[in-house]
Amino acid sequence: MFPSDHPFRIANFRAYWAARFAMTIAQNGMIIVIGWQVYTVARQTMSLKAAAAQLGLIGLMQFVPLFVTTPITGWVADRFDRRLIARATVSLQLICALILALATSEGWMSLPVLFGVAILLGLARAFAGPAFSALAPNLVPRDVLPTAIALSSISWQVGTIIGPAIGGFAYAHAQSGAYWLAVVLFGIALICMMLIGKVPQPPRSSAHPIRQIIDGLAYVWHNKLVFGTITLDLFAVFLAGTNALLPIYAHDIFKVGPQGLSLLAAAPAVGAALVALFFSVRPLKTNVGPKMLIAVLVYGSATVVFGVAHLIVPGYAFQVGIVALAVAGAADMFSVYIRSSLIQLYTPDDKRGRVGAVSQLTISASNELGEAESGFLASMLGPVGAVLIGGGGAIVVTILWTYLFPSLRAARTFDPPETETAS
């Protein structure tokens, strides 16, 4: 079925890929439902703007543990068996899903429960990210590593996009359904991780742990292509992310309820899946840097269209909003495919955990902290103003990064140069 040199021919990689895919779907399915529950519970006693601030707070609760532990998580991923770290973090997330499932089905769900679980999820994801991202290159030979990284990136990104859709549909069917589904998916991920046999570990440095942490941060700073790629994701998605505001659009602007929320959450998944399918048949090989920058511009523009759909086409606002989100999902998948491959291939194996931790921090900042920014901004300017500022900001950032980091627009392939770009 697969060519002889395909990563899916390797049992360890198949188990890893399935585990990451299942875990990512479960994570993001839970996040969208947690946001909906926070908003609906808050709206029972609060105004729209005050409830929007609660959405910002739930994003902040997931980000703070990651921010605090980032220097440690990367070092842990480079120092200890990455399989064991991954198994432990999947187990903790399974417990979180079980708590939310029981709280919802038995009627003792509350804002404190939601906030408490959000903190635990943030802690689990802080350690899971570097371990999972650094593990993939240990499972395959060097000559198929670019394909393995692309497949790993696709599993994460598609899971990130379709997770909210699946979670929204499951919640619309039964309020505890999304969490019980997450319990099953985390269980599958844990079983798959247990199937991965012993893999090579990077050599352990004799340097002091603090010195190793500093070295990882220094590598990111000095490699301008890696630094530019990581920070582009940080600022563009931080500004233009709309996930936190989907409950507001579904509840108060489009007035489509949880079923409509499911469709809004599913829209980016459609766009991302189409792009992922295309790359599985026609891998990207040329002009990767310029194409990444164009994709981020499209992402910001589509976000703006989503934000004003109800103003420019009031009779078809919901439909236009879905199309805009689908385009945003496609553009995001396109850019993440390139970003993930560049970061992994330009980073030595003994630093992948620490660089992965920095990358994850920026991803979480752009997602969870971005949700906090969106919620707080919506509480001050309203949801439409928040989306417009975010989408426009992503466009401005991309234009600036094109000139601030010439190595981005100069990158033509995924192959790193003989000498790392440093200055």
Describe this structure in words.
The chain is mostly helical and 423 residues long. Helix content is 80%, strand content 0%. It has 15 helices and no strands. It has helices at 11-43, 48-79, 82-106, 111-135, 145-173, 177-194, 209-222, 224-240, 246-253, 257-281, 288-312, 317-345, 352-381, 383-404, 406-410.
Radius of gyration: 20 Å
Would you count the extended β strands for me?
0
Shape: globular
Percent in strands: under 5%
| Main pleated-sheet profile | none
Mean of pLDDT: 81
Structural class: mainly alpha
Percent helix among the residues? over 70%
From the N-terminal CA to the C-terminal CA, the straight-line distance is 46 Å
In short:
This protein has 423 residues and is mostly helical. The chain has helices at 11-43, 48-79, 82-106, 111-135, 145-173, 177-194, 209-222, 224-240, 246-253, 257-281, 288-312, 317-345, 352-381, 383-404, 406-410. Mean pLDDT is 81; it is low at 419-423.
Give the key terms.
globular, mainly alpha, disordered C terminus, 423 residues
What are the SSEs and their pairings?
Elements: H1 11-43, H2 48-79, H3 82-106, H4 111-135, H5 145-173, H6 177-194, H7 209-222, H8 224-240, H9 246-253, H10 257-281, H11 288-312, H12 317-345, H13 352-381, H14 383-404, H15 406-410
Helix pairs in contact: 1-2, 1-4, 1-5, 1-6, 2-4, 2-7, 2-13, 3-4, 3-6, 4-13, 5-6, 5-10, 5-12, 8-12, 8-13, 8-14, 9-10, 10-12, 11-12, 11-14, 13-14
